[in-house]
Amino acid sequence: MIVQSDGGTIIRSRKRRKARHSNMSFSAYPFLFRHAILPTLDRVNGTRVSQTHRFLEESQWFPRERLFALQMEKLEKILEFTQKNSSFYRQHWQSATDDRRATSHFPALDGMPIVTKDDLRAADGAFPIAGAPGGRVIKVKTSGSTGEPMTYLRSAVQDSWFWALRIRMWQWAGYTPGEPYLTLNLNARTAWHKRLQDVLFRCDYHGFNANQNDVHAVLRDLDRHKVSTLVGYSSSLYLLSQAMRRLGHNRHHVKGILATGDTLFPDYRQHIEETFNAGVFDYYGAGGEGFHVASQCEERGLYHLHIENSVIEILCGSRPAEPGEMGEVVVTQLDNHAMPLIRYATGDTAVPAAADAVCACGRQLPLIEGIRGRVPDTVFAPDGSALVVHFFTILFENLSGIRHFQIVQKEADRIVAHIVRLADFDQAKIEDEVRRAVDEATSGTLAVAFEYPDEIPLARSNKRRLVVSEIESGPFAVHAPIEDRRVEAPTCPPGSE
Questions:
Q1: Higher per-residue confidence, 392 vs 188
Q2: Domains plus CATH for the chain?
Q3: Max avg pLDDT among 223-227, 269-273, 386-390
Q4: Inter-axis angle of helices 156-172 and 49-59, to 10 degrees?
Q5: Best label site of 125, 144, 282, 414, fewest CB within 10 Å?
Q6: Cα dihedral sign for 413, 450, 286, 459?
Q7: Over the chain, what is the mean pLDDT?
């Protein structure tokens, strides 16, 4: 699979590339993609996406006992490898205090300490592990959910699982590999390998800010290329569906819609599905870390855990959360020997389902009720543009000298950027870049002021909110306070054991 690179610059609306789609019939290209293009990419890149995907198509129907046996076998192997080869983890496991440790339903993990982004960030030079199996090492830089830069490493084997799982998840939404799809995102697609990837995967890619130019460009390509699958951040899909209703646009060929990146609220889902007359399928993972945690199948109810590649725990303090109780998602990767993530705290929250819960689809993969922790706000500009949280994460991850940031909007035509500076911070340059990007995205209608605190306080969820909007305005506005839109679930009481 073509490697994802770090960055590029913020784009307002990517120009359509000419002749990006083959003239080959829809039925012929998916066959060619699956049996020729994907295997060829594997040979070029040293990956095993095609082989892993074939396994996943079979394993989704395994009995639950067989799935658990596979998971436990892989867990024991990755723990043994990490204990033997990683000095960072040996020290972390030996020296961690009791407040960093947690019990587990998985005996091999019971009592082991949690590892955080800060732990990994401080482990300079500890990864990749020398001589680790799994092929070449892929480096991915991301601002992460806290807005603080982070570098993750993953082996080609783990990258193969990442892409193969994504294909399987999308298939549950009706996607056929090789069919045209359209993605709403804000990561720039300037690198040649990303452009080639879009051509081979038949992807129309839009840097979507929900301004008028973006909306018309998306609608144009939905029609022109008879796109069958639409993929995007939940908030972006909702804003697009609002724009379509306002413009009276109802011409499209979309069969399935995949939502990710932020919380898919029930009224978001209803609005999108009614606008497109197509189902919305939610999925949750971490592109930087390189894993997929859970996704909805064709039933669009509970979320299946992808346990062939990971162990997923939901912890309430130092114990597993009970069914229906909200806790933090903790992930152990099973195939990443370059930079193992063992009991890695994602910072997101979820609600476990009952142990005997089953899905009508017939798959025996374990289930959770849903994800609760991805709740960004959106900035609205006077010209009708909407800047989702990912606009700012992509903007700031490409600027140096910044430890943390937070965007606050209290006025319709003005935002304040709170920035915690590092030693190499260039104030004039940073302020100019931020103002330029915001001006371009909002037609110059949104002013930016700057404040430089020593620290940005965490929210009650113990996560740093990157965007805090205290107004409701503009044609795309969400007409309810964000706190009122959350699906309530019992939370862990303080000091839960």
A1: 392
A2: 28-371 (3.40.50.12780), 379-478 (3.30.300.30)
A3: 269-273
A4: 50
A5: 125
A6: negative
A7: 85
For residues 86-97, give the mean pLDDT.
Answer: 97
pTM of the full structure = 0.79
Query: Contact 4/193 with Cβ under 8 angstroms?
Result: no
∠ CA(484), CA(488), CA(493), 5° rounding? 120
The string of pLDDT tens digits covering residues 40-63 is 999 999 999 999 999 999 999 999
Rounded CA-CA distance 195/187 in Å is: 12
3-state SS record for the chain = CCCCCCCCCCCCCCCCCCCCCCCCCCCHHHHHHHHHHHHHHHHHHCCCHHHHHHHHHHHCCCCHHHHHHHHHHHHHHHHHHHHHHCHHHHHHHHHCCHHHECCCCCHHHCCCECECHHHHHHCCCCCCCCCCCCCCEEEEEECCCCCCCEEEEEEHHHHHHHHHHHHHHHHHCCCCCCCCEEEEECCCCCCHHHHHHHHHHCEEEEECCCCHHHHHHHHHHHHHCCCCEEEEEHHHHHHHHHHHHHHCCCCCCCCEEEEECCCCCHHHHHHHHHHHCCEEEEEEEECCCCEEEEEECCCCCCEEECCCCEEEEEEECCEECCCCCEEEEEEEECCCCCCCCCCEEEEEEEEECCCCCCCCCCCCCCEEEEECCCCCCCEECCCCCEECHHHHHHHHHCCCCEEEEEEEEEECCEEEEEEEECCCCCHHHHHHHHHHHHHHHHCCCCEEEEECCCCCCCCCCCCCCCEEECCCCCCCCCCCCHHHHCCCCCECCCCCC
- Cβ-based neighbour number of residue 355 at 10 Å: 9
Alpha-carbon span 94 to 98, nearest angstrom: 11
What's residue 370's pLDDT?
87
Q: How many Cα atoms occupy the beta-carbon half-sphere of 319 within 13 Å?
A: 11
Token readout for 313 is 């725990």
Beta bridge partners of 399: none
- How do strand 367-371 and strand 303-305 relate by DSSP bridges? antiparallel
Q: What's phi and psi for 376, nearest 5 deg?
A: -85, 160
How far is residue 160's CA from residue 333's CA, in Å, rounded to a whole number?
A: 13
Predicted local confidence at residue 460, as pLDDT: 55
Q: For the segment 229-271, what is each residue's pLDDT rounded down to a tens digit?
A: 999 988 889 889 988 888 888 767 899 999 998 888 888 899 9
Place of tokens 């205090």: 97
Residue bearing tokens 């997929």: 292
Question: What is the chain's Cα-based Rg?
Answer: 22
